[in-house]
């Protein structure tokens, strides 16, 4: 990251970079609705601490002075954190998420909280209680979701990197729509402590950046074991930046039919062109079919809502967050949840509660878990034929605001290519490669087995170079 290098060398200061970020936020935030809260005071203090470390000749960290945007479901002490919902409006967390502790320790400067689909439930950042975010590349279009604010902050040059969360594609799809690199790490590689939960067996925090090298650096910073998260892998953060330029010579890369079939022609063309670029760089391209991937959407929309139904039960008007008074506790609880949750969250809570209810558990939730096991086995077989997999990130380029908001199924289909990896817990990233007919970016998806992030970044770098990106 050039900014960090310049801050450490004294060529610039963290405070100057922070001021530049603030200026960019002020210039376009009213238009795009990216930041829900700009933490100007906290950013100034963080930047000054970095500059003081540099002045003392100390190591200011891997991300020294780099402004960073944080998705609004990451807890930060004393900073409003709403998960895009009215039910948490004004809530100030009493602790920091582990990933925030780690970016602060690395010298990054958090600029504030960015918009998201309510409780990360959405694919367009239109379900936020605080209004939709617009795509900086074309404000008539969505930035993707649920981490649309995180993607827009980087695409609009408000911050050079950001953190989002990915439950079914919520980092990769916005990255594709906004022309960025977005990473869904191996499940357990990054601590979920301090992440407001949607579906705990699927959620994973990951980075957005403009190139593979910067994304690898941010993932290095936030990865590694955390005793506060029982699902955290018991191992240190992997070395990633040092492998970005390893290339793909000798790698077998499988082009998976089910990860691009049904996509728009302009997207399919870029996936084919990406396969050719990887072949030219020395990889062996193999055609693979994994029919089980077609079941991913159905299984996901039973498992994720079921977990959400359980996780969101804590928003009851008693412990914290919104409270709407009524004549008794049951009425208060109902009134609070009715007023506090939006339509999409209510839809998923009801779907999940139904799937878990007596008489339907085995038929729906239990069956979905069996499909998930089949998905894991299918990935394992695929990795016997190929080291990495290639497909589309999303079926289309960014669509217009409102185009799918009245049709939940059409919206859910936006994640049809990203969901299988979340069900398996494997690693994946989206890298921009080419453009569609409208000139908007196309994202291609690289998928690998658990702990394959170094290989994925190397392949992403090959595609960046082939596409003429620095």
Secondary structure: elements and pairs:
Elements: H1 2-9, H2 14-32, E1 35-38, H3 40-55, E2 67-71, H4 98-105, E3 109-114, H5 148-155, E4 161-166, H6 172-178, E5 181-184, E6 204-209, H7 212-222, E7 252-256, H8 265-280, E8 284-288, H9 296-311, H10 329-340, H11 343-356, H12 362-385, E9 388-392, H13 408-412, H14 419-424, E10 427-435, E11 441-448, H15 453-466
Helix pairs in contact: 2-3, 9-11, 9-12
Helical content, roughly?
25-40%
Written as H for each helix and E for each strand, in order along the chain, the element string is HHEHEHEHEHEEHEHEHHHHEHHEEH
Strand order of the largest sheet: 1-3-2-4-6-5-10-11-9-7-8
Query: What's the N-to-C terminus distance?
Result: 13 Å
Q: How many structural domains can be distinguished in the coordinates?
A: 2
Structural class: alpha/beta
CATH architectural group of the largest domain: Alpha-Beta Complex
Enter the CATH topology name of the largest domain: Amidase signature (AS) enzymes
The global form is: globular
**Main sheet attributes: strand count, strand direction, barrel closure:** 11 strands, mixed
What does this molecule look like?
- Helices cover 39% and strands 13% of the residues.
- With 470 residues, the protein is α/β, with parallel strands linked by helices.
- The protein folds into two domains: 1-293 and 374-470, Amidase signature (AS) enzymes (Alpha-Beta Complex), CATH 3.90.1300; 298-363, no CATH class.
């Amino acid at each position: 990251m050039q900014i960090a290098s310049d801050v450490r060398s004294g060529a610039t200061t963290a405070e100057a970079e922070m001021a530049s970020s603030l200026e960019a936020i002020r210039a376009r935030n009213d238009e795009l609705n990216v930041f829900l809260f700009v933490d100007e005071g906290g950013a100034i203090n963080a930047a000054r601490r970095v500059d003081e470390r540099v002045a003392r000749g100390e190591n200011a960290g891997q991300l020294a002075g780099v402004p960073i945007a944080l998705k609004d479901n990451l807890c930060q002490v004393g900073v409003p954190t709403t998960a895009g919902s009215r039910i948490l409006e004004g809530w100030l967390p009493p602790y920091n998420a582990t990933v925030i502790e780690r970016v602060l320790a690395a010298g990054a400067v958090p600029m504030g909280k960015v918009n998201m689909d309510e409780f990360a439930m959405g694919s367009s950042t239109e379900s936020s209680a605080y209004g939709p975010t617009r795509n900086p590349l074309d404000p008539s279009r969505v930035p993707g979701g649920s981490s649309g604010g995180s993607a827009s902050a980087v695409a609009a040059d408000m911050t050079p990197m950001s953190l989002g969360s990915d439950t079914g594609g919520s980092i990769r799809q916005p990255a594709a729509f906004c022309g960025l690199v977005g990473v869904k790490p191996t499940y357990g590689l990054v601590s979920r402590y301090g992440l407001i939960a949607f579906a705990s067996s699927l959620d994973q925090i990951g980075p957005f950046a403009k190139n593979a090298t910067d994304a690898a650096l941010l993932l290095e910073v936030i990865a590694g074991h955390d005793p506060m998260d029982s699902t955290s892998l018991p191992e240190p953060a992997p070395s990633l930046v040092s492998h970005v330029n390893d290339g793909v010579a000798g790698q077998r890369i499988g082009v998976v039919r089910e990860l691009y079939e049904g996509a728009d022609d302009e997207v399919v063309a870029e996936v084919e062109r990406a396969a050719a670029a990887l072949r030219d760089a020395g990889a062996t391209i193999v055609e693979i079919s994994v029919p089980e991937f077609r079941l991913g959407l159905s299984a996901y929309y039973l498992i994720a809502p079921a977990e959400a139904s359980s996780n969101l039960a804590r928003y009851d008007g008693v412990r914290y967050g919104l409270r709407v008074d009524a004549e008794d506790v049951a009425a208060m609880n109902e009134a609070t949840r009715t007023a506090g949750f939006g339509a999409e969250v209510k839809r998923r809570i009801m779907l999940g509660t139904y799937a878990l209810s007596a008489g339907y558990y085995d038929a729906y939730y239990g069956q979905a878990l069996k499909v998930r096991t089949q998905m894991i086995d299918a990935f394992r077989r695929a990795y016997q034929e190929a080291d990495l997999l290639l497909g589309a990130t999303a079926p289309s380029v960014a669509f217009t605001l409102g185009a799918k908001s009245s049709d939940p199924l059409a919206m859910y289909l936006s994640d049809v290519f990203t969901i299988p990896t979340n069900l398996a817990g494997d690693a994946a990233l989206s890298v921009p490669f080419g453009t569609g007919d409208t000139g908007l970016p196309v994202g291609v998806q690289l998928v690998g087995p658990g702990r394959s992030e170094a290989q994925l970044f190397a392949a992403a770098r090959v595609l960046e170079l082939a596409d003429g990106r620095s």
